[in-house]
Amino acid sequence: MKNFFLAISGASGAVYAKTAVKILSEIKDIKLHGTISPSAIKIFNHELGNDILKDTLARFDHLYEYTDVSASVASGSFPLDGAMFIPCSLSSAMSVSCGLGTNLPLRVAQVCLKERRSLLLMVRESPLDAIHLENLAKISRSGGIVMTASPEFYTQPKTINDLALQMIYRSLSYFDINIPDMKRWNKPQEN
Description:
Layout: E1 2-8, H1 14-25, E2 30-36, H2 38-48, H3 50-58, E3 62-63, E4 82-88, H4 90-97, H5 104-114, E5 118-123, H6 130-141, E6 145-148, H7 160-173
Parallel strand pairs: 1-2, 1-4, 2-3, 4-5, 5-6
Helix pairs in contact: 1-3, 1-7, 2-3, 4-6
């Protein structure tokens, strides 16, 4: 059984969070731990509605209070296999880069980096200035994966959900969770 932590932070892109939670909750050998920020709740409700938010949160095996830094997953002794911020606000990313642990997801990120566990931040904001880029580089140098929510169009998506699905498949591949349905680059045939 693998334990994964998913933080939903206050950036636009609730469709990414919904998709990630759905996929991870359907994998039988994964226990899904997570939390959602107060601002993410507002954004989620605006983008997808309260019913989808309720359904998404109900899929977690363990849902923690956003401010509970004493939760079991916040300890280096907890057998956590990795953590993801999907979507990740720039505020959260900048806090991770500074080593802040003022809420549960930031503390989990600290633990992942210090214990050399996988950490992925799916940054959803744009454009990025020099401060953002320097701090995101710090996270990368510390072992974190900084992934921008930049959908792939070579997969010829038909819907927004198709775009989100491919992004989540790609993010899960960094945790050695391979989804057979993931589309990969295939050089087009020449005429």
